[in-house]
Amino acid sequence: MQSYIFNDFNICDNLLPISFFENISNPSKEDDYGYTTMSDFEVTMQDYLDKLHAKKRDKALIDFDRYRSIEEILKNPSNTAISTAQFRYWAKKMFELSPGETKVVCHNGKPVAIKETIYEILLDAHKIANHGGRDKTSAIVKGSFSWIPKELIARFVRCCPTCRFKRNGNHLDTFDSCSPPYATNYNDLFLNSISTEISTPSTTLWEILAGEF
């Protein structure tokens, strides 16, 4: 059984069988360009969170500290000293502890993926999917874990250099396609163009802006 460990905490200890993650095959020969790197994933994960509404952002992912709070609430449901009444109500409504001696926080019967372990989970699932795309990778993840948004899985696949190679007719794109294109920030563009104008007097602001339309 594959383990996902953060701060000596093993999310998969003595859980129900996580069949998809038991046997991870070796990467095939076509994987010349590898997989999404942790640094790329962290950037696109933060971008995903930043674009959520503030109310949704707070609980979109469960980090280690929040996981521990939920775990304490579920283990001691009558303890009113843990967090706030609103948070305790939400934790009891959305989560449950797994059966067995080792209690793990679950949602709809599946272990909750801690934010700090999501990259490793997605990496393993995408290896098993053999670069099979968002839906195949998502099905593997959802078969074993909960609380990983499908959009985040899609972004992981979008970042994968091997998948980008396949998607672009067997050549690597030259731009960063980890996240959807950003809307043009014309304030930044204006400031950058002024800097460019100073260093290259022959280039006007409007010539620079023209490339954006």
Report on the structure:
- By secondary structure, the chain is mainly α.
- It has ten helices and five strands, in the order ββααααβββαααααα.
- It has a three-stranded antiparallel β-sheet with strand order 3-4-5. Strands 1-2 form a two-stranded antiparallel sheet.
- A hairpin with a 2-residue loop joins β1 (5-6) and β2.
- α6 (134-142) packs across α7 (150-159).
- The relative contact order is 0.14.
- This is Integrase zinc-binding domain-containing protein.
- InterPro entries: Integrase_H2C2.
- Residues 117-164 form the Integrase zinc-binding domain.
- Pfam families: Integrase_H2C2.
Topology:
Elements: E1 5-6, E2 9-10, H1 38-50, H2 54-60, H3 64-75, H4 85-94, E3 96-97, E4 105-107, E5 110-111, H5 118-128, H6 134-142, H7 150-159, H8 161-167, H9 186-199, H10 205-210
Antiparallel strand pairs: 1-2, 3-4, 4-5
Helix pairs in contact: 1-7, 5-6, 6-7
Domain Integrase zinc-binding: 117-164
Organism: Rhizopus azygosporus (Rhizopus microsporus var. azygosporus)
InterPro entries: Integrase_H2C2
Q: Which ranges are low-confidence, i.e. pLDDT below 50, for 5 or more consecutive residues?
A: 13-20, 22-27, 181-213
Q: What separation lies between the terminal Cα atoms? A: 52 Å
* Approximate helicity band: 40-55%
Say how many strands there are: 5
Rg estimate, integer Å: 22 Å
Mean pLDDT: 77
Strand order across the biggest sheet? 3-4-5
Number of helices: 10
**H/E element sequence:** EEHHHHEEEHHHHHH
Kindly give the count of domains. Answer: 2
Strand fraction band?
A: 5-15%
The biggest beta sheet reads: 3 strands, antiparallel
Shape verdict:
elongated
What structural class do the secondary elements suggest? Answer: mainly alpha
